[in-house]
Amino acid sequence: MTAIGEMSAVSRSRLSPEGQGRLGAGENPAKRDQILDGAKKVFAANGFDGASMNDITKAAGVSKGTIYVYFNNKEELFAGLIQRERERIFDAVSSILVDDKPLELVLFDFGMMFGRHMTNPNTVRSLRMVLGVIDDMPEVANMFLNCGPTRGAYRLKDYLATRAAKGELVLDDPLLAARQFADLCTAGLFKPCLFNECGQPEDSEIERTVRSAIRVFMKAYAA
User: Fold this and answer.
1) Which of 17, 55, 102, 138 is the most exposed place for a label (fewest CB within 10 A)?
2) Which residues bind DNA (predicted)?
3) Model confidence over 98-135: pLDDT tens digits?
4) To which CATH superfamily is domain 74-221 assigned?
5) Which ranges in the chain are annotated with CATH 1.10.357.10?
6) DSSP string across 146-191
7) Buried b (16+ CB within 10 A) or exposed e, 114-149
8) For residue range 17-32, what is the model confidence (pLDDT) as tens digits?
């Protein structure tokens, strides 16, 4: 299997002789997203094993030549989807974890975002696919873990450490506290979705769980 490399964060442009900006092969972010959107549809419909590059080419509306400029195989496509989601989640988390708002309000906003994400049908389907290929593609499984729960927890850890430095929290282990809070926000919600006991919960149910998580967290760690 081809090793999965990191996606380029910024596409580099080249200039044509006429001085017009021109993107090089494999450097058009809109085309990459078009291919990834097609792959997402195929993976969702057929699962990882049932997906083929031909199906993805058709769903994306591009030629075979174009798709192979961007991705060598469906493993790289799947990894690309995970990486794209990772950046979106990180941007969302970073916009929430700001120091100029009351602590409990920030925890609530984070908990709602995290609860919605982890119980979203697309997230659940992706996780099931990852679990299905974990023995053959452990690096992809690790990437999926780091794109959501783990990376979000590390960003939350930094935020909690900052609030602890201001005297609002008492934390021996900020990372453990961050992981505990994230787990509390999906307690009783995530596993039923994962094992198909129910669909995505209503916002009111997520809110009830998140508010309970905040009470427990502040009881344990408030200064």
Assistant:
1) 17
2) 52-71
3) 888 999 999 999 999 999 999 999 888 888 888 887 88
4) Tetracycline Repressor, domain 2 (1.10.357.10)
5) 74-221
6) HHTHHHHHHHHHHHHHHHHHTTSB--S-HHHHHHHHHHHHTTTTHH
7) bbbbbbeeebbebbebbeebeeebeebbebbeebbb
8) 343 444 556 679 999 9
